[in-house]
Predict the structure.
Amino acid sequence: MKPDFTMRYYYVMTLYLADWRRSDRRGCPHTCRSDPLGQVLTKPALERDRNKGFPRVPETSSSPSLNNLEMSEGARSLLNAVVKHIRENVDPFTKEYLRVNETKPDRWSYTPRQIDLMEGAKRKARDAGLWNFFLPNAETGEGLSNLDYAYIAAELGKNPLASETLNCSAPDTGNMEVLERVGTPEQKERWLKPLLAGKIRSAFAMTEPDVASSDAKNISTTAVLDSGEWIINGEKFYISGAGDPRCKIMIVMVKTSPDAEPFRQQSQILVPVDTPGVEILGPMHVFGHDEAPHGHMHIRFTDVRVPEANILWGEGRGFEISQVRLGPGRIHHCMRSIGQAEKALDLMIERGLERVAFGRKIIDLGKNMETVSRARIEIEAMRLLVLKAARAMDVLGNKEARIWVSMIKAKVPETVCGIIDQAMQVHGAMGVSQWSPLSGMYAMQRTLRFADGPDEVHHHVIARNEVRTYQESNSRQDNAKAEFQVRPVGGFVG
Ligand SMILES: Cc1cc2nc3c(=O)[nH]c(=O)nc-3n(C[C@H](O)[C@H](O)[C@H](O)COP(=O)(O)OP(=O)(O)OC[C@H]3O[C@@H](n4cnc5c(N)ncnc54)[C@H](O)[C@@H]3O)c2cc1C
């Protein structure tokens, strides 16, 4: 990627689109626009107009600081070190490690050889200072900004084991970030410390089989306080990572205050996996695969008792914690997805160049070259959007950047699915086989279209913001018009 060119391109496109939408709404030709008071707006006038409160696009969209998508100098050497680490310490054993998963007798465990390989790579990463990158501006991690981490996470997405070797895998990253931001000293000592050291793993349990969980207000698992303990009852499913024998702690979303206002009814509570009453009923499948030993588990909680102090940040703050967690979690997925798209494109080209049909290389048949071109264009567009969302989180904060995060969440998995689908097509039957990583990559990207919130919910968030901004900007224009019309009258009377 060439940051200078792409940044300039994106900035120009943002201005172009913003102006085009304004002109479109006001029914004026693109090159000669009128403001609400009938003045012709030249380019400098458009800039002034943007600062007067008329713009359709939120001011922050075109703010130069949001458009500075360059990686910091310090992170550049880290990125090089990560690329080298993956090439030298992870790529060489990845195939062997994954193949063992298919043949070992106990699918919900790791073989001694797998443990040796993974722990060896983790040791090398830690010794090289490549550890816990995901915690932005934290004392406990490398303190990378979201923007810097975005560049690194895209590299991690190219190898399915890379994130774990750097202690940067989901769902631990989101859980660690929550513990780091809102945990008490005792909670940090007990759970954050071993997670940061890569000694244990964790899960996040929100989704329930019996309610539409994309609306978290529906969550029905209850937690009731009794003699200094929470008693938890309910059922969760698709709890990623809970099948891993190293998974020791879950953050569970529960309803603690059914009489409070809707967004204050939920809390998040730390539940050790081995607490009596926690029953892992079995794995949920993804396109027919149980994804052992990580797993997406179906779990029942029956009279599970944990200390009162296990609540995170206090009663009724479940939604607030989700805001801390979901921004980073979503953006990390999207960053890694860019890496997946790159990998799919590489595989598409490799296969297209090496196989021949009807006397020509497959890549030269039909519209396959155009498919390659379109994939590259989509990847670069997604990369810019993801970098901008990461930058927005750094500049505006997780809460204010949520529209940007929704944009990438609605855009990236869907588009990456399309690129992987094309790569499978170029591969023929092998594309969906166990000999190619593509089908697994596709399944992963497809599930991201509802995990962490379905596409539709994110589109709704973006569109609602657009409509609200439009209405607010229109009412400002009306006020300005009224002010303009009133002024001469005032002058006359005076
Ligand atoms: C592989 C995988 C891993 C997962 N890991 C976890 C995990 O670790 N922890 C966890 O808690 N959950 C996890 N989930 C669950 C995931 O987060 C939920 O599936 C998701 O939040 C949607 O909830 P739901 O399945 O109940 O869908 P529902 O809420 O029933 O929604 C179904 C559909 O309704 C439509 N819909 C919903 N809202 C709107 C709207 N506003 N506008 C238009 N249409 C709408 C959408 O098409 C949506 O897909 C995982 C899921 C998968 C597949």
About this structure: The longest strand covers residues 229-240. Confidence is low (pLDDT under 50) at residues 1-59, 486-494. The CA atoms of residues 111 and 279 lie 24 Å apart.
